[in-house]
Amino acid sequence: MTQRPWPQPHPHPIPISPISRLPPPLRLSPPMGEQTLSQPHLSTAAAQESPSATAAVTGTAKIPFRPRKIRKVSSEGDPQLDSSSSSAPTKKAANSRAPLLRVVPRPLSAEGEIDTALRHLRVADPHLASVIDAQEPPTFQCLHPPFHSLARSILYQQLAVKAAASIYARFLALCGGEAGVVPEAVLALTPYQLRQIGVSSRKSSYLHDLARKYHDGILSDAAIVGMDDRSLFAMLTMVKGIGAWSVHMFMIFSLHRPDVLPVSDLGVRKGVQMLYGLEDIPRPSQMEQLCERWRPYRSVGAWYMWRLLESRGTPTMASMGSGTGVAITGGGEGPGGGATPQQTQLIDPIQMLPNLG
């Protein structure tokens, strides 16, 4: 029987680190999925020579490890992650941060704008075309700056034309004339002074709130003229005493905005009823759909609705001339903000209607 030789020792014995003879330290196991790094005191050489020593020190040889999913982050949209252009933002990122530009339309008082509006309305609405042909074209003139017009509209609230005109004349005298109707002058007037000329305490607070927003920089004539319709509506309805119907009238007759539809005005609603032969007066919620074809000149369409009622014997706008008393049948907002019918009154529509706010 052949005797098998004993295995010969390895010519280069593997050194055994003394660390491998140490018991593993006590420690809490890391949570599932958390990767544990090697201890800092274990040298790289020792770890390479004895992998078991590394496992012994860290105590993670038998702990299951769940690989963490790595989410791929795209450099698109973040200039810091874009290796091709680390200094300039990408086009998509620049577009996402750019403010939305809203264009303010040309006012109806601009040259040729009324003619353009009438051509559009004749083609868009044959029913309205017959009303346009039967009436003189509208004219829009701006007599006062925005602050003056808004202050005057507040003074005319809930008053007949003669009483409002008398209070307005005394108000001008307190301010030193029409040129003196500025925020600083209105703030300088005390509630007692305003009460002496017939202005109620509530209207005094409305005037002071309007003037204070001008003084604090929240509003200004230049900002009002430059705002788009949506922003302007939001800013003006923040003023005490000025509601949605008031803003619509101000935008049409003072700023001459072309595409304003006063859906709560009773005169415009009655005119739409007559124009289309409807059984009932359309609700404010129905006005948008009925007058959609008038865009972007719904202000002119609304103006012709007032004239249509006048031609049928219902007192509405009789004139757009400066300082001319005209009869208005419309809906204003009461203290609760809802549209309420009002009696026919004589006022100047260019300088706003009564029962504002």
Automatic annotation (TrEMBL):
Gene3D superfamilies the UniProt entry points to: 1.10.1670.40, Hypothetical protein, domain 2 (1.10.340.30)
Any Gene Ontology biological process: base-excision repair, AP site formation
Top-level taxonomic group: Eukaryota
Pfam family for this entry, one: HhH-GPD
UniProt cross-references to SUPFAM superfamilies, sorted A to Z: DNA-glycosylase
Annotated SMART domains: ENDO3c
HhH-GPD domain span: 155-310
Region (Disordered): 1-99
Keyword Repressor: no
Pro residues bias: start-end ranges: 1-28
Molecular function terms from GO: alkylated DNA binding; DNA-3-methyladenine glycosylase activity; DNA-7-methylguanine glycosylase activity
Keywords: DNA damage, DNA repair
InterPro entries on file: Alkylbase_DNA_Glycosylase/TA, DNA_glycosylase, HhH-GPD_domain
Composition bias type Low complexity, residue spans: 43-56
One GO cellular component, as annotated: protein-DNA complex
Family (UniProt): Belongs to the alkylbase DNA glycosidase AlkA family.
Record's protein name: Probable DNA-3-methyladenine glycosylase 2
Species of provenance: Phoenix dactylifera
Source taxonomy: Eukaryota, Viridiplantae, Streptophyta, Embryophyta, Tracheophyta
